[in-house]
Description:
The protein is of the alpha/beta class.
Amino acid sequence: MKLNLPLYVNSWSQLFLWFIALICTAACSAERGNVQDRLSEVISACGDRFVDVIIVGGGPAGLAAGRKVVSLRRSAVIFMGDVPGGQLIGSVLVDNVPGVPGQPGWQLIESEEACIKKSETVHIEYDIVVDLAIDRSSGKKLFIVTTKEGDAWCAPAIILATGGTAKFLEVPGEADYVNKSIFTCASCDGSLARGNVFVVGGGDASIDALMTLLNYVPHCTLLVRKHALRASAALQERIRHNGHITIRYGVEVVEVKGDGERMHQLLLKTDHGFELVDADYLFLSIGHRPTTDYPWLRLLVACDRQGYIGVDCHQQTSCAGIFAAGEVAMPFVEEHQLVYVYGTSTRAAKQALDYCDRWYEEIPGLKESLAPRLYQRQRRLSGLQTAPNQYDPLY
């Protein structure tokens, strides 16, 4: 019996190898089909709550990442958390954003939210994330987020933008004057300073705060708890012979006094006892604390001793598919300004979407099979009923 072999098969051994390769190809195709079916079942369980990227955090970092997703016409959901707007909400005047005139922090946040809400692809949820898990039942990694309200959202990529909080002195009377006479950002609120201005700290950030405040007041006093500065030698040299700056070493603020509306005095503890000084404004530069004290976060990504999330140059964390942006991933930036936050957030959003593209491409046809349902979800969220066309916002 004579077989008609393919042109590139000229022996029985090659026929055997060709047959094995054919079987393997068919098996792989079947497996890809099975993975796609299982993945579709998992995604269908989320209903309308499947997006390209889930952004955890509603401060400047999370909203900036959302704006980048909007510009690329992809889908995302932003969880605003327990403090929508983050630290920026407490800033009385923000005037260090290029191209944006000085305005209160809450107004800047509201304008960011308004821009995102106009889009058809990014949804804002005023909810809190209580759990983040990885689902591998379909054969591919898929992140599932559970909120305090009991909703479940799933996505191929996550951006952690949980931000941080400035450290306070935690002394009597301090809480009564925060964002009135006591501030933590000289770049944001320095233009409000008048009269007797004090800065607490001893690192690079405190020196930067002094130089910023001297643009608004003729004199500042730096209170250093220890007997030496921690700032770099170059920065110390800048203020060493500056007649507009007074440095007091071995001084600790133990109480803040005022009339309930404005601060008027500080009670200081020195090497020689206690001292009461007149004070109108106090700026704290004693560090930041990243908001990473979530059990689900610590189980998935690596953090350093201070609690900051470790990232590479692409904002990628130790867990593939999870990216971090903003203050939560900025341990080496002394002065946490908005321009740094915007930069890391934009990079994280772009890299997260590139990761999504690779995730979709691993299974041919997956992206196309999900597109119609995602499109309908966008229309329901935005209230639009127009028919899809070649300019689909997602694909």
